[in-house]
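Changelog-adjacent note: as of this version, every example in the card shows the full chain rather than a window. The one below runs 144 residues end to end.
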Amino acid sequence: MTLTIPNWLLITGGIGQIFTALIYPYIRHKVFDWYTDVKKLKPLNQEIAKTYGRYIQGLNFSFGCIAILIPESLKNQTELAIAITGLIAAYWVGKVITQIAYYPMYDIPKKRIFKLGSYFMNCLFVLFATIYTLLAIYNCTGFF
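Full-length structure tokens:
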């Protein structure tokens, strides 16, 4: 059986990842009131929290750009393709596991838009995890 992952799927996933990067500040501010909580931290811890937030946003944006700009390179079964798709797969699988393990314990505001948004975002995260896991497996099977 040959696994084929079309470029349009990678590009769609890339657009979704850029979307998550762009929507991230809104979610932190409007849904989680994150900045109010961060202000309660010591100054250094505030900066650390903000920095990690930017890392997340930057990674999501960068992964999206890679998928949109060089989808063929992500599928060429080279060592670099294995490394990049493995990294991105681990990132999104870890995100999905975190969502399942920890986030249900917390209340999301009851507004309908936030509830629907949480389902939509979780579906995106599962999509990203699936795409990149399949892609990493595909790259490995052609390499070894």
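Structural remarks: The two ends are 16 Å apart (CA to CA).
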